[in-house]
Amino acid sequence: MDKLLIKGGYRLNGDIRIAGAKNAALPILCAGLLTAGDVSLHNVPSLQDVNTMLKLLRQMGLQVTQENGVTVLNGSQIDRLEAPYDLVKTMRASILVLGPLLARFGEAKVSLPGGCAIGSRPVDQHIKGLQAMGADITIEAGYIHARAKRLRGARIVTDMITVTGTENLLMAATLADGETVLENAAREPEVTDLANLLVAMGARIEGIGTDRLVIQGVASLHGAQHTVIADRIETATFLCAVAATGGDITLKNTRSDILDVALDKLRDAGVVLTTGPDWIRAQMSSRPKAVSFRTTEYPGFPTDMQAQFMAMNCIAQGTSRVTETIFENRFMHVQEMNRLGAKIEIDGHTAIVNGVERLIGAPVMATDLRASASLVIAGMVAEGETLIDRIYHLDRGYDRMEVKLSAVGAHIQRIKS
Ligand code: EPU
Question: Is 86 helix (H, G, I), strand (E, B) or coil?
Answer without folding.
Answer: helix
